[in-house]
Amino acid sequence: MTLKIVNNSDAGDADHVGGNDWDQMAALINSTGPKLYSYVVSKEGSTYIAKDDGWNVDSSNSTAETVIQYAIDNVTAGGTIAFKHNPNDWFVLTDGINLVDKKVRLVGLNDQYTTTAASGSNAWGGTVFKKNYAVAEPLFNMQNTSYNINSLSNMRIVGNSTSGDIGVKFYFGRKNILNNVSVTGFDVGIEAHAWVDCDIYSLRISNCLSKGLYCPAVSARINTTRFFGGSMSSNPTNLYFDASTANDVQFFGTQFEGANSGHVYAVQIENGANDVLFSGCSFEKNSETNPVCVYDSGNNNTYFKCRFDSDVSYTPINFRSTAKNNVVNNCFFQTNTAATTQTVLIDSGALDISLTDNKKSVNTAGTVALTDNGTRTRLSGNAQLGTGWDDKIPTPMLINDYTQDKVVSAPSDPASGFTRKYAKAVDANNDGWFVKRKLAGTVVEWRVA
Question: Which stretches does DSSP call E strand in 229-377?
Answer without folding.
Answer: 231-235, 237-241, 246-252, 255-258, 265-269, 274-279, 282-284, 292-296, 302-304, 307-309, 315-319, 327-329, 332-334, 341-346, 354-356, 359-360, 367-372
